[in-house]
Request: fold
Amino acid sequence: MRSLPFKIEELNGGFALVEGILSVKENKLCIEFHKKDAVFGAIKSDVKSIEIPFSGIDMMEYKKGLFSSKLTIYGKNATALKDLPGDDLTTRKLKIERKNPE
Reply:
């Protein structure tokens, strides 16, 4: 099973970011991540692991860019994405670096 590294940037007014890996297992998105401060990168949280069932996801949208791409996950309700850090209630935007396979 391949995993896809991602970032969620601009959390807490730009002072925090999330780095993690995304993979698919059976009928779930498996996400491992840690949160760190965006200024120095010195303060990191412990690695957390969550699973989001596909039944909780309304839609996923992939937009390819020149230097990076974005994967936007839309939850069916507020609880679907509650364990994945983000500023929006039902949407998470994951930045995928260009060097990763598409």
